[in-house]
Amino acid sequence: MTTPVVRPHSPYFSSGPCAKRPGWTPQALADAVLGQSHRGKPGKARLAEVIDRTRAVLQVPAEYRIGIVPASDTGAVEMALWSLLGARPVDMLTWESFGSEWVTDVVKQLKLPDARTLKAGYGALPDLAQVNKDHDIVFTWNGTTAGVRVPNADWIADDRSGLTICDATSAAFAMDLPWSKLDVTTFSWQKVLGGEGGHGMIILSPRAVERLETYVPAWPLPKIFRLTKGGKLIEGIFKGETINTPSMLCVEDYRDALIWAEGVGGLPGLIARSEANLAALAAWVARTDWVDFLADVPETRSCTSICLKIIDPWFTGLAADAQAEVPKRIAARLEKEKIAFDINGYRDAPPGLRIWGGATVETADLEALTPWLDWAYAQVKAELAVAA
């Protein structure tokens, strides 16, 4: 087919680290608090500021604690698992790679005897009706590697006895998180707001704080997981007194992204931008016969990590190794053309494409991308057909 003429203005469609906010340049970091201690007055003030801005943009209730913690979203999730679990049975929900990692932590590392795994394959959700309200619950709000999100929180009981621990790293700032249903929520800066990596956020409800102050795990906790001292919450963590030394350049970058988020309408504006991106790809999928969403149910389709499968009978008739080669070649061809970077599906997911649609991606760029996807698929199909 004819090579498309219009190119995306920005080729950055990676699912992490994700695209910087529109108009970003390194000059955005000019006011970073550098060359001085993060525990000094200017450093602590900047850390406290990003916590306050996070609360405002995400509309987090005043009684919830927000902390900056080490090791990205992974560190934040594992901090919650190691510090809070073991007090009661736990239901582990998994339908993609990262949820499976949390199952490994709980079942094989912590070895909790009362852990129950509710699992679904890529493209679907487990039966949420099976969740026990008297158990703790661990789940991802949005499965980054499957493009499948929970459609709402109606399945979480208001009168639950257990805690909910939600990995929201590719959902925060793009999806509505109902705080009354969430006791621990984690995310990282490099997802929807396109910040730099290495730092995680943990948000605790009063119920989570109560668990922390009344329950002592049976295993030792390393320093980077400790949220309490002497049976009391370490309040400083939630005021900018970080456990370890943060990168103040990354802090400044996150601050810049939050200020941009405020300028596009806060959380409603961010959600609208991301949903518009999903709608743009959905319109293309609807008129395209070789591709479909990996998520089977429309209400569960992610508006950030948008995962696609190839349904062309030519493709489905290929051997497994040949199928894996197709999206890999599509991604490589578009990267060579500087049209799109990092859009091959996740390594453990079924062969397909994964295109980031978070709020920092412009809808016009996704609309410009779709003819190139058709072009690249046609090119790859022709090449492999000749080779066969």
What is the gist of this entry?
The protein contains nine helices and 14 strands. The protein is of the alpha/beta class. The strands form four sheets. A seven-stranded mixed beta sheet has the order 1-9-8-7-4-2-3, sandwiched between helices.
Distance between the termini: 20 Å
Number-wise, the strands total 14
**Major sheet size, sense and barrel closure:** 7 strands, mixed
How large is the share of residues in beta strands?
A: 5-15%
Oligomer: single chain
Strand order across the largest sheet = 1-9-8-7-4-2-3
Query: What would you call the shape?
Result: globular
Structural class, from helix and strand content? alpha/beta
Radius of gyration over all CA atoms, rounded: 21 Å
Mind explaining what this structure looks like?
It is a single chain. Helix 1 packs parallel to helix 5 and helix 8 packs across helix 9. The model has no long low-confidence stretch (mean pLDDT 97). The two termini are 20 Å apart. Helix content is 35%, strand content 15%. It is built from nine helices and 14 strands. The protein has a seven-stranded mixed β-sheet, sandwiched between helices. It has 388 residues and is of the alpha/beta class. It is globular.
